[in-house]
Amino acid sequence: MITVLGSEVVLAENITMVTEFLLLGFSSLGEIQLALFAVFLFLYLAILSGNVTIISVIHLDKSLHTPMYFFLGILSTSETFYTFVILPKMLVNLLSVARIISFTCCALQMFFFLGFAITNCLLLGVMGYDRYAAICHPLHYPILMSWQVCGKLAAACAIGGFLASLTVVNLVFSLPFCSANKVNHYFCDISPVIHLACTNTDVNEFLIFICGVLVLVVPFLFICVSYLCILRTILKISSAEGRRKAFSTCASHLTVVIIHYGCASFIYLRPTASYVSNKDRLVTVTYTIVTPLLNPMVYSLRNKDVQLAIRKVLGKKGSLKLQN
């Protein structure tokens, strides 16, 4: 016999199964949440405007129709959806007393969040390979990074990202969740949710750790090897200007890689038993809010091609307004 009571389902064996979760988020901060709402809303709008600007400029300026900027456009698109999965719900919860999320919605949020996050990791690896091909094998670059190859690589990143996400979400939500339903986080992340399971989670956590190694460590090592080859090639360039120009095309990518992989590795490449809510929440804010904000800033402020393209697009719009 099954009885439904509020957010719980009580089975005949007196085991209470959770049907809803309570996202604690920043509730312990009291009135400071209003200030956080204003700050996070501003940052979210900045993320949207920055990434939309990058996507639009790459689409409109033909000089940016190259593999490097194709992948940057895909990354910006993925970052936009990545933040959309988390931030709107977080902003609503900052102003709400009832921070309820259903069991199904929690699983879906984790699935899409991890899907886009892992896709981003794989895309950064592919972007590292693109820089390697461009600098180390410039004569073969048109063949190595043809549009057909670029399309297949982008599709592989998305498919691989969401398949890995589906695996992890299945490992988390296949566990039984009994009476505990308070998620000590502002969204349904792996560690705070799996902590609520009312059974031994060692096997599931180990398999999730293996997935983390595959999607974080393997692409990062691939990027490191790519940049070692790039560095060796750059050092062989005789002119200082040539070396500076070659390295400048990699600096933006390296900056994003260090921040993204650094924060993600800190959270996911360790046992969930070592989860510390306040410290981990701060790091999570970095890779869910700061990193998506830094991507367009880094690529626009440090990249002269993007800066020039933005000025060209804005100049065209200005001239059209004058003509009208």
Automatic annotation (TrEMBL):
Primary localisation category: membrane
Stated family: Belongs to the G-protein coupled receptor 1 family.
Signal peptide per UniProt: none
Residue ranges of domain G-protein coupled receptors family 1 profile in the record: 50-299
GO annotations of cellular component type: plasma membrane
UniProt cross-references to SUPFAM superfamilies, sorted A to Z: Family A G protein-coupled receptor-like
Cellular localisation: Cell membrane
Pfam family, one: 7tm_4
Membrane topology: Multi-pass membrane protein
Organism superkingdom: Eukaryota
One Gene Ontology MF term: G protein-coupled receptor activity
Chain segments annotated as transmembrane: 32-57, 69-88, 100-129, 149-173, 206-230, 251-269, 281-301
Keywords: Cell membrane, G-protein coupled receptor, Membrane, Olfaction, Receptor, Sensory transduction, Transducer, Transmembrane, Transmembrane helix
Name assigned to this protein: Olfactory receptor
Gene name for this UniProt entry: OR10R2
Membrane recorded as keyword: yes
Originating organism: Rhinopithecus bieti
